[in-house]
Specification:
heterodimer; A: mainly beta; seven-stranded mixed sheet; four-stranded antiparallel sheet; 11 strands; globular; B: mainly beta; 50% strand
């Protein structure tokens, strides 16, 4: 079970931070991935965070703009995206990796409902 | 980056018919391919991983096959609730990538 924070509306150049609270399993046992979906478009992988070690990995196109963190004490993962443009308007999903840490599988078996981020002046 | 090309873009079939969805990779992804189902306003759901392994609670009418660069998702007998967009995903080459989706419509 992954519960995400509510919709956000941001101006170009701003930052957004989305949260994802896990329940029903051991939070530190599975990587959390972030995947986004622009309106009417397909799925795009953003990156993952290891809830146990805090290690992260992200797609090159987000390098320098995305930070993924976690707070294991409240079983919550976060994704912050900076320098927003209209191209970042999308639904952002968090999803659990099917395999347990330290291995990652990239197959995503539990998903949050998504957080809509709208970037508009 | 591996490009996954799905076809057809849309498939319109009647309940009980067989649906065959294709996913072609721009380079080999061995057997490391998954399929997801997404209904309007919902998050994707994992159906199949590693080409042919069904995820938890996925009905047996969903099956996957293929290897290398050509993969198929088959829905043996369509149910009305199978109306959705289906995406393939590869994990063999970093970064993981998704296809653009095939929309299945039930007549």
């Amino acid at each position: 079970h992954l519960v995400q924070s509510g919709a956000e509306v941001k101006k170009p150049g701003a930052s957004v931070k989305v949260s994802c609270q896990a329940s029903g399993y051991t939070f530190t046992d599975h990587h959390i991935h972030w995947v986004r979906q622009a309106p009417g478009q397909g799925l795009e992988w953003v990156g993952w965070v290891n809830p146990n070690s805090g290690a992260t990995n992200n797609a090159r196109k987000f390098e320098g703009r995305v930070t993924m963190t976690r707070d294991a004490s409240i079983t919550t993962a976060y994704m912050e995206l900076r320098g927003l443009t209209s191209a970042d308007t999308a639904v952002y999903y968090c999803a659990r990796d099917k395999l347990q840490v330290p291995t990652y599988y990239y197959y995503l078996d539990v998903w949050g409902k998504g957080t809509t981020v709208t970037v508009s002046s | 980056e591996v490009v996954l090309t799905q076809s057809p873009a849309t498939l319109a079939l009647s309940p009980g018919e067989r649906a065959t969805l294709s996913c072609r990779a721009s380079q080999t992804v061995l057997y490391q391919l998954a399929w997801y189902q997404q209904k309007p306003g919902q998050a994707p759901r994992l159906l199949i991983y590693d080409v042919s392994d069904r995820a938890t609670d996925i009905p047996a009418r969903f099956s996957g096959s293929g290897s290398g660069t050509d993969f198929t998702l088959t829905i043996s007998s369509l149910e009305p609730e199978d109306s959705a967009i289906y995406y393939c995903q590869q994990r063999y080459v970093w970064p993981t990538t998704f296809g653009q989706g095939t929309k299945v419509e039930i007549k």
